[in-house]
Amino acid sequence: MAIEHRSGLFPYLLSRVSEDTKKPAPLVLFLHGARDRGTDINVLLKWGLPRFVDESSPLPYFFVAPQLSEGQTWVDRESDVIALLDNLITSQPIDPSRVILSGFSLGTAGAWHIAASHRDRFAGLVAVSGRVPTTLETSQLAALKDIPIQIFQGAKDEKLSIEDTEQIVDTLRGLGGTVDFTVIPEGDHFIADEVYRDSKLQQWLVSQSRRQASVVASN
To answer: What are the Phospholipase/carboxylesterase/thioesterase domain coordinates in residue numbering (predicted)?
Structure first.
C-alpha cells in the first residue's frame, strides 16, 4: 500500500483509502514508541502498525503516524497532534466520528493522555505495551468511559506489570467503561507486529463510531 511521507507540525506517514470509496472513511492515528523518535521517519515502517499498513493492500481506513524528535514525548506535542488531526479531517474525506487513537509504549502513554483530554474526538483507543501515565487522575479516567478501549500486553513484558494494568482495567470498568484486555502469553514488550495484524482488531478499528458509543451509553 502506498504510504506518503509528509511534513508540517511534524513529519508524518499518511495512507489513504481506495479512491473508489465514496463515503467518508475512518482514520487510525498511531503514536510510536520511544526508540522510533528521530529524523528518519522510515524507521516507523520497520514494524508494528505502520509496517502492517505499508505491506497491505488498500485498507478501509486512513492511517497517519507522526514522528517525534529525540527527547520529545507525545504529551509535549498534544496540541500539535490535535492540530494534525484537524488538518486531516479538513483536507481528506475522513469521518470525524470514526477516529481511532492507538499507541505503542511511549505512544500509549500519550494516547491515554490525549484521549482523556479530548474525549469527544475519538471513537476508540488501542493501547499496546504501555502504562497509563501516573499524572492521570480518576476524574480524567472517567472521561474515557464512553470510549471503547483495547489493551494489549505481553505476559513476559519486563517493563510493565500485568497487575498494574489489571488495576487500571478494573478502575475503568468500575467507572462504566468498555475495556477489553488481552494478554499475549509468550509476548514480551515488542508485541506490536502480532497485535496489529490480527484480523479481529483490524475489524474493530473500522467498526467503532462515537455515535454508536453514545447510543450504548444512554441505554
So the answer is: 79-194
pLDDT of residue 213: 42
Cell of 181: 484486555
Using DSSP bridges, classify how beta strands 4-6 and 12-15 pair: parallel, antiparallel or unpaired.
antiparallel
Burial (CB count <10 Å: 0-12, 13-18, 19+), residue 71: exposed
The model's pTM: 0.93
149 near 172, Cβ under 8 Å?
yes
**CATH number assigned to the domain with residue range 4-218, chosen from the 4 options 3.40.50.300, 3.40.50.1820, 3.90.550.10, 3.30.1370.10:** 3.40.50.1820
Taking the C-alpha atoms of residue 206 and residue 124, their distance in angstroms, rounded to an integer, is 10
- Under the banding of pLDDT at 50, 70 and 90, the label for residue 133 is confident
R_g (Cα) of the chain, nearest Å: 16
Do 122 and 150 touch, CB atoms closer than 8 A? no
pLDDT tens per residue across span 57-77: 889 999 999 999 999 999 999
Domains of the chain, by residue range, sit at 4-218
Residue (of 126, 204, 215, 141) closest to 177 by Cα position: 141
